[in-house]
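Priority: medium. Attachment 1 of 2:
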C-alpha cells in the first residue's frame, strides 16, 4: 500500500543512490506491484508533488482506469513519478 512512510522510504533510496534508470529498476525490484516512472520535473506542469527534494520531486500516479494520471490521494495511488530537477543555466 502506498502511504507517506513508503514515499519517504523511496525518497531516501533515491537520495542515497542517485537519480537514473538504475535506481528506477532498483525501486521496481524492491517494491513489486508499484508503478515507477522517471522523467524531468519540468515535464510535469501545474502539479504539486507529494514530496519535494532539492534534486527530485515525487508525484503519485493513479492507474485504476487503465489510463495513468497524477493524484494527491494515497488511497488511489498505484505508483510514483520520480521527476528529476535539472537546473538550466
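Attachment 2 of 2:
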Amino acid at each position: 500500500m502506498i502511504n507517506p512512510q513508503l514515499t519517504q522510504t523511496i525518497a531516501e533510496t533515491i537520495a542515497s543512490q542517485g537519480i537514473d534508470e538504475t535506481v528506477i529498476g532498483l525501486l521496481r525490484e524492491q517494491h513489486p506491484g508499484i508503478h515507477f516512472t522517471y522523467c524531468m520535473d519540468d515535464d510535469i506542469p501545474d502539479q504539486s508533488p507529494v514530496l519535494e527534494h532539492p534534486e527530485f520531486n515525487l508525484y503519485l500516479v493513479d492507474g485504476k482506469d487503465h489510463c495513468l494520471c497524477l493524484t494527491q490521494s494515497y488511497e488511489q495511488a498505484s505508483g510514483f513519478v520520480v521527476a528529476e530537477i535539472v537546473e538550466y543555466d
